[in-house]
Write a structure and sequence with these properties.
By secondary structure, this protein is mainly α. The protein has 12 helices and no strands.
Amino acid sequence: MAEGGRPWGDRELLVAGVRAMAGAILLGLPLLMTMEMWSLGFTMKPERLALLLALTVPLLAGLAYFGGFRRDVGLKDSLIDAGVAFFLGTAAAAAVLAAFGVIDQYSSAREVVGVLALEAVPAGMGAALARSQLGKDDDDDGDDGRWEQSYGGELFLVVAGALFFAFNVAPTDEVVRVTVEQGSPYFALGTAAASVLVLHGFVYTLGFKGSHDPEAGRSKLFAFFRLTLPGYALVLLTSALVLFLFGRLDGLGPDSALHMTIVLGLPGSVGAATARLVL
């Protein structure tokens, strides 16, 4: 059903599906061409992959609800769209990886399932966001501004943006290299401070398109404590989760694990701020 309960026509469904597929390829392509992601898909522990997929369901449902490839009327439609987004993300990943020769007739079932399940997460996010990012401007007329009206929605968007950017960085060796090169905890503190400034400045201070104004009668300092600091805490939790799922924290002590989480939290904060601006 389209917005207002109006039945979707065949052409509208086709356009929405093609747009979602385009969104899956557009946002998923960088990771679809990353060798570290291919290796992770082949070697990731099954229980961690299962946990990732379980967390993907509410993530895609939330993205579909707030900015999906069609205008939904409720939670049920969002869950349906989440399933469609994941299916299209998997299809896009399969097509691209097959074209690149990453999976072929010689790949084992375990390898194919692992790499497709992993790559389907960012591709599915692209499919879920297809309407808000690839739709015409007039498609957004009458949007209900759910992000601005919902504190939980704002924090969810922070997590989604942080997760997408963390997915792009965590598989690479650079996050390990930076952690080792920094060494000193003072560098970690400086990185954390920079992350908080990025998260707050991008959204409230620098005047980018999509910037937010504090609530009526409230100062930017209030927004800092109400949204920026809790948002950064969620960025760190998201970064730690991604590092754990990808096996980056295995064998590390608490200090090293925290330092690496803070390092990944910098691009995670950029992603969180960007998501709040764009959506």
